[in-house]
Design a protein that fits this description.
Blueprint (H helix, E strand, L loop, with lengths): L2 H12 L5 H8 L3 H13 L19 E9 L4 H13 L3 E6 L6 E7 L2 H10 L7 E8 L13
Antiparallel strand pairs: 1-3, 1-4, 2-3
């Protein structure tokens, strides 16, 4: 990636709503070339989209936890069904296939511990192929960056 694109991405990761005029001034380009570069980054899939950063606690979403999941049988069908369920559950906000002792890591956001418990015990543990889960609750957010290093 060349230097102007990296500058553009640094600014857009922090200020997604910045105008093209201000962006061009910040990265040292004129407006048209800056806009062309942003569009090229979007079209190539480097920029996946734009969105608001929301304070979950202001919405009453006070519980954040990570669940490590092990599947009983790692058949393609079980895995597909498990991932379909995960994708449909809005309280599961992130899911990663993992190396090591667990198959998947899920990030859960819920209003209350009871809501988290219900999701875990009555849904996730019943997803196809789930053998066991273990959870860890976030006590304090120290760093929560949505930016990637450039």
């Amino acid at each position: 990636m060349n230097k102007p694109e990296a500058k553009i991405l640094r600014v857009l990761q922090k200020e997604g709503r910045i105008s093209n005029v201000d962006l061009a001034n910040r990265v040292g380009l004129s407006e048209s070339p800056c806009l062309r570069r942003v569009r090229a980054l979007e079209e190539s899939g480097v920029i996946l989209g734009y969105g608001a950063v929301v304070d979950r606690r202001k919405l009453g979403l006070d519980v954040m936890a990570y669940i490590q999941v092990n599947l009983d049988q790692r058949s393609d069908e079980n895995t597909r069904q498990f991932l379909d369920k995960v994708r449909r559950e809005e309280r599961i906000v992130e899911c990663y296939a993992m190396s090591g002792s667990h198959d998947f890591l899920l990030k859960i956001i819920a209003h209350t511990i009871d809501e988290f418990s219900d999701l875990t015990m009555h849904k996730i543990l019943r997803y196809p192929g789930v053998k066991d889960v273990s959870s860890a609750f976030v006590l304090q957010e120290i760093k929560n960056s949505r930016s990637v290093p450039l």
